[in-house]
Amino acid sequence: MEWYYENDDRKVGPVSEQEIEDLARSGRIIAETKVWNDVTSKWIPYGQINSEIPGDVAYDNEEPHAANESVCIECRRSFLIDEMIEYEGVKVCSACKPVFFQKVKEGGHHGAMVYGGFWIRFAAKFIDGIILGAISMIFSTAAGFSAFNAQNAVSPLQGVVFFLQIAIPIVYATFFIGKYAATPGKMICGLKIVTADGDRVSYGKAVGRHFSEFISSIILSIGYIMAAFDDEKRTLHDRICNTRVIKK
Ligand SMILES: [Zn+2]
């Protein structure tokens, strides 16, 4: 069983059940500490799983009361198994069914995020670079021909092209991230950009992230390299915008 636990608003893991128990024994994990495992598929206070653990709040250990009852993964209340729906080994009560399947559909049900590492992100960036380079080359070539035809050293079109060279990457990042949560490069690499809570990134945040990325690149790309050493694989621009890049 894979476990994750929350530490200062950070999600740490995967760790083994043994490690969770050791952390609980040493007091690093208390009853209020939110934990996740692939059986509950839900962030719940550790006290709900292990009632013996000391904490400020006493949680009811919501074990089924009878053999024909089970606990709903959403609302954590006990129901008759006959009245529940089973999905991939977890049970949901009929009242929570719509919410539960909405989460499954959005892919958000498996609460723990798997972060995209440095090299896969590098590959995605490389692909985006090729695409943007190709678009840029088309415009430059068009402008070059127009300058040649006009017999001018600087064609007015070149001013337009200069503007486009700056605008295209902004539009590219904002449109794709705002609409699809990933640039084409990230899509190909099976990555998507989400907020710290795993939600969608807004168009506004996508623009902000693009400009933050500029900071990551002007400091000798150290902002990008930071992802290789971060436990949540965050680049500098992820830190600035509080975003995460995760595997789909
Ligand atoms: Zn329920």
Overview of the molecule:
- A hairpin with a 6-residue loop joins β5 and β6 (78-80).
- The protein is elongated and about 90 Å long.
- The protein folds into 3 domains: 1-61, GYF domain (Dna Ligase, domain 1, 2-Layer Sandwich), CATH 3.30.1490.40; 62-110, no CATH class; 118-247, no CATH class.
- The protein starts with a strand and ends with a strand.
- The protein is built from 9 helices and 10 strands.
- The model has no long low-confidence stretch (mean pLDDT 84).
- With 248 residues, it is an alpha+beta fold.
- It binds zinc ion (ZN).
- Zinc ion (ZN) binds next to loops.
- Zinc ion binds at residues 72, 74-75, 77, 93, 95-96.
The parts where pLDDT drops under 50 for at least 5 residues are: none
N to C succession of SSEs: EEHEEHEEEEHHHHEHHHE
Strand content: 15-25%
Shape: elongated
Counting DSSP E segments of at least 2 residues, the number of strands comes to 10
Number of domains: 3
Main-sheet strand order equals 2-1-3-4
Q: List cofactors, ions and other ligands.
A: zinc ion
Chain-averaged pLDDT: 84
The number of helical runs is 9
